[in-house]
Amino acid sequence: MRSEEFALKMKNLPDSPGCYLMKCEGRIIYVGKAVNLKNRVRQYFQSSKNHTPKVQAMVEHVDDFDIVLVDSEMEALALELNLIKRYRPKYNILLKDDKHFPYIRVDLSQDFPRLELVRKQARDGARYFGPYKDATAVREVLDVARMVFPIRTCNRVIRPDHPQRPCVHHEIGQCLAPCAGLATREEYHAVLGRAMEFLSGKDGPVLAELKERMAEAAKALNYERAAVYRDRIRAVEDVMQRQKAISTHASDQDVIAVVPEEADAIIQMLYIRSGRLIGSEHYVLEGGGSELPGEAILQFILQYYDAENMPPQELILSAEPPERDVLEQLLTELHGRRTYIVTPMRGEKRKLVSMALKNARDEAEKRRKKLSRSRERTVGAAQELQRVLGLATYPRRIEGYDISNTQGALSVASMVVMIDGASARKEYRHFRIKTVVGANDFASMHEVITRRLSHGLREPEGKFGEMPDLILIDGGRGQLSAAQDAMHALGLSIPMFGLAKRIEEIVLPDREESLLLDRSSPALHMIQRLRDEAHRFAITHHRQLRGRHSVSSALSTVPGIGDKRRRALLTHFKSVEALRAASLEEIAAVPGMSRPAAENVWNFLHPGD
Prior knowledge:
The protein contains 20 helices and 20 strands. The protein is α+β, with helices and mostly antiparallel strands and 609 residues long. The strands form 4 sheets. Strands 4, 8, 9, 10, 11, 12 and 13 form a 7-stranded mixed β-sheet that branches. Helix 4 crosses helix 11, helix 5 packs antiparallel against helix 9 and helix 12 runs parallel beside helix 13.
């Protein structure tokens, strides 16, 4: 129930532009912007019949809100972007795959610039070419550029008054050697200019020059040199062939298309530079499926084009974003250059949008199939298990238990959890067996089930508070019977079954005959994964304990360390790992320790150091 303070805040909302932050128990769950905060915020809490299911769910949880006033709609848009990035609210559209692609950078403020691979753009006056799909694609282009254009690749500091010895790249014709004073700034920049034309997608002049040189070399009967030019021509053509020419416009463009799914939205991008398609990528907008396509694209643009991803001259969109003019103004302000936004209905640009939409739909279909397969392995498998075992309710939470020890020593139990058929690692727990002496798996299983279920009864809000809908015991009838006795002693009735390893038979407490599932059954595969995970988790913890115990016991053999000092060390550092990580001074500072004894301990824990 909302407080009187909430109603007072609603009453005093201003007519100003700004951002609003919806809260639930002090946590920000949604951030929005408005030209008029009073009208926008009040709309949420009036009739809900026009709200989407997501907005209705958000409003039901809101118990407070804050506002931030700004001077303009553009400032509100910029602030909304920063607040979403900072808080990542549950009900906002969020860019899931926040990838940053590599670029080629040329710093023209230097006398002899290099071609560099960088991971982000910066407003530093340098020229950037890209983005490229990955670093491998960049290196392929750089290799060709360096083969054709003799531009330096080294990090040498070039000083005209201190010429250096040319490197091997100059000897093979792949560097002008400005470090040795063999090229002037003007000569170097002339070659660099042609290289930048090539990087911009203008391969025509480059190929014409190379073909002319090849012809001249062949005419002079210098066939070896002609072969070099031939190889360079092939390298350029190979790179440019992969960058398909799809636009008659010479400007840089990003094509952005959105395809909504049930919950999320798929964004497909095509990167066009100087009329050539140099790459494409898809993204997932979490929560974008319930929004209008234009709103989803708006949120994508705001989150994608940050300080490290500068927009090109033109964005070609499949849907018109709200406040397009304000968005253009904001992008221009943030990145220092004008960006135009268009939503074409026909012509060449519409064909580009259609290409992006086709790719987005293809990706959406792949995701649907993948989710369907995943559902079959998880929720579908749990539903099948419910049917096979004749359970009255769907087993949302399934817990698996296993025991591990070495000849009865250091016995431990594991509890692993599946929720809706998928591993829930945060719910996993270990137990040290306390009441059982020796190797007695039945008694150990009785103890661990008693402790786990007792915790749940005593502390319903604690870490064991959620009771299982179904329990899997790794073992046969003996282990299952022990677990059943422990549960019944607490007055509980939770479905249980065992899984015997020999022929993967399901053991049920009320059936004399075991149950065998088909080898291809998703339910069988799921409980095998649960059983194997319980075994792995128990074994891993047991080995860790055994390692700590052996080191702890061995400490008593260190000169100057008796039981009293050993206990003092382990009490102070809590674990052998922490003791091993401690410095000599920290060990010596433990009460009761002497410097020589501390040195002996440190040397014992660090043999060979």
